[in-house]
Write a structure and sequence with these properties.
Pfam families: LacI, Peripla_BP_3. This is LacI family transcriptional regulator. Keywords: DNA-binding, Transcription, Transcription regulation. It comes from Nonomuraea zeae. By secondary structure, the protein is of the alpha/beta class. The chain has three domains: 38 residues, no CATH class; 123 residues, Response regulator (Rossmann fold, 3-Layer(aba) Sandwich), CATH 3.40.50; 132 residues, 3-Layer(aba) Sandwich (Rossmann fold). The protein contains twelve helices and twelve strands. The longest helix is centred in the N-terminal third of the chain and has 17 residues.
Length: 340
Amino acid sequence: MPDSPRRITLATVAASAGVSVATVSKVLNGRSDVAPATRSLVQSLLQQHDYVAPAPRRGETTGIATVEVQFDADLNAYSTEIIQGAVAAGAEAGVGVVVSLRKGADRSTGWARGLVTAGRRALIAVTSELTSRHLAAVSRARLPLVLIDPLNLPRTRVTSIGSTNFAGGLAATHHLLSLGHRRIAYIGGPATAACNQARLHGYRAAMESEGAPVPPGYALSGHFRYHDGVANGAAVLDLPQAPTAIFAGSDETALGVMEAARARGLRIPDDLSVVGFDDTQIAQMASPPLTTVRQPLREMGGVALRTALRLAAGEKVDSHHVELATELIVRGSTAPVPRV
């Protein structure tokens, strides 16, 4: 077996910079009593050497262990459910949860190493777009990683948590078909997102099984956000042959669709039926309450946290991808197709 690479120490970095170990330690700890030029040189060498702070020794008291839950976009109702599940699981395990917002472009070459230096035991990235460079940085830092609903599919094998998105898309569309609708549109999230692709495929499979056509302009992508629902909802409702029902890829998107419908004088569900996806709190607070596909978001957050801790402990996981079951929840936003 080849020898493992020698760990770079503070002394190594200090010697390269021509400064003391204490100075390097001050830079790592964000102390202000270091000259700017010296700080810049030390930080550059830390990145060059891929320095990773050593793990605490067994029995050493360093405070509560932490896991970082990182998002790529502003937090919303979906994010809140994930966080609550992770926090609850962390409390049971005696682990703290740190929530951060870091978009892809904000992940510099030293971002993963910085998380380890800050004492993070593992990283959970939610709806993130991680490139091969990001994944390589996580691997070099030996930071356990779990993804929830990634926006892209990494080529390397990464542990991920999701739900039965295809089955959810199938159930949502079959529900509308069972009410007599045939002109059904789909307004989803990012075209490259695995969860969106699965929901779209479920929608198309249900439509095909009933011989219902999907005309041009009936399947649109966005960002799972309210304003995308408004804009894309307006686009499909302004088609020469508008849909009588819309399946939205998220609850937030669905509320945007409902607003676009109201702006055109359409009543829900009398004139237009709408189905969402997620079953966040806003689905129940919508007017009328939103028919939606329930994702077990809190459970997803909890499973991700426990899986991350298993990886951090050096344990093997049973599967690199876990899908939790979805369920259709029927409320007041869907009704039989209106009579012409």
